[in-house]
Write a structure and sequence with these properties.
Blueprint (H helix, E strand, L loop, with lengths): L2 H5 L5 H8 L3 H9 L6 E2 L7 E2 L2 H10 L5
Length: 66
């Protein structure tokens, strides 16, 4: 990770869903489909964690011109 990522505040699945204005289940589905970056606590077996930059990437994918 770069220094900017290390200084970011991590969001839980619920916080991340609120930030994106989507349901927890929708965001979890995007994780399992490999469409959004995330990390996990406990060496990869714990809670899903996100930073806003990663969430912004998936939100921008839905932007359409027109």
């Amino acid at each position: 990770m770069n220094n900017n990522t290390e200084k970011q505040q991590y969001l839980t699945i619920r916080e991340a869903a609120e930030y994106c204005r989507v349901s927890d289940s929708w965001l979890r589905n995007q994780v399992y489909k490999g469409r959004v970056k995330f990390t996990r606590t406990n060496g990869g077996s714990g809670k899903l964690l996100f930073i806003k930059e990663w969430l912004d990437e998936i939100l921008l994918q839905g932007v359409q011109n027109g």
